[in-house]
Amino acid sequence: MLSLTHYPVHVLKLVNDKTCWRLRHRGPDWSGLHQHGDCYLAHQRLAIVDPASGDQPLFNEDKTVAVTVNGEIYNHKELRKSLPKHKFRTGSDCEYDEYGEEFVDMLDGIFSFVLLDTRDNSFIAARDAIGVTSLYIGWGQDGSIWIASELKALHDDCDHFEHFPPGHLYSSKQGGLRRWYNPPWFSKAIPSNPYDPLALRKALESAVIKRLMTDVPFGVLLSGGLDSSLVASITARHLASTSADKKLGSQLHTFCVGLENAPDMKFAREVAEYLGSVHHEFHFTLQDGIDAIEDVIYHTESYDVTTVRGSTPMFLMTRKIKSLGVKMVLSGEGSDEIFGGYLYFHKAPNKKEFHREDM
């Protein structure tokens, strides 16, 4: 996803070719471009929901509003029902109807988007509550504003760029960022809600089930650890009651990667056998990992040792998964950060610092 505002029209073609190509790997299914005056939207689509008609940018009924989105809106069917007079053009989960800037609070999903209103040449951009989807914002020397899913689309044309913060919205009318996501717990130094295991279980199951919203083949990354095993178990249990089962079948596919004789492979195999999934094991060598490092750094846009180390086997595995025709995966990623699962969390000096590190 790429957005460019207030840029001389005569250089747009050059910008299109150069910057869109840098993000081509993000979306092999469709390349969409839209220009209005000196504002420009581009999108590289990986089609998960409504592959047939959900190409972007998307428009409202009279095409005065255009939007490009990276993400999934899990409550899009409920939102459609609340708009009986609106004639939706696609089956996409990202099609928009007008609610002003406050519509972001209505979204249940993971997303980064830029919405352009051609009636007053204004735009808004927003990122989901905890920043699952990537987003960056940059400023050119000529006053142009650039917003993209990856830094590589910005570095040639921006004097300054930075992370677009999670849970925030940028409005061209206001000229700055504001936080749209303000849950009650966010401002608490120490959470006060008592631990409720049943509520936690219900929330986890709900989170997994709503992510089974797909029109394309998918699977689960399974390491054999607690987090990925729970996600795989919930998926296997509820798959038959989702639309994915009707379109793709009820046989769950699981995937694991590791060095030869790695413990994860053994544990993942045991979980897969228990769940009855179609299990795929991928092995790599140290040389495979070394050979992949340059590509991993390019795609993660990071030299951080921990990031590169953890991303390398994931990079090798996802290439194999893609070759099998699978376009979406669920995983247990992120749970150690939220629940303090890493060993270093025991060094937190107090509850306040523990909570700050978690959030």
UniProtKB/TrEMBL annotation:
Annotated Glutamine amidotransferase type-2 domain residues: 1-175
Classification via InterPro entries: Asn_synthase (IPR001962), Asn_Synthetase (IPR050795), AsnB_N (IPR033738), GATase_2_dom (IPR017932), Ntn_hydrolases_N (IPR029055), Rossmann-like_a/b/a_fold (IPR014729)
GO cellular component: cytosol
Domain of life: Eukaryota
Pathway note: Amino-acid biosynthesis; L-asparagine biosynthesis; L-asparagine from L-aspartate (L-Gln route): step 1/1
UniProt keyword terms in alphabetical order: ATP-binding, Ligase, Nucleotide-binding, Transferase
Transmembrane segments: none
Molecular function terms, GO-annotated: asparagine synthase (glutamine-hydrolyzing) activity; ATP binding; transferase activity
GO biological process, any: asparagine biosynthetic process
PANTHER family tied to this protein: ASPARAGINE SYNTHETASE, ASPARAGINE SYNTHETASE [GLUTAMINE-HYDROLYZING] 1
Protein name: Asparagine synthase family amidotransferase
Originating organism: Trema orientale
Organismal lineage: Eukaryota, Viridiplantae, Streptophyta, Embryophyta, Tracheophyta
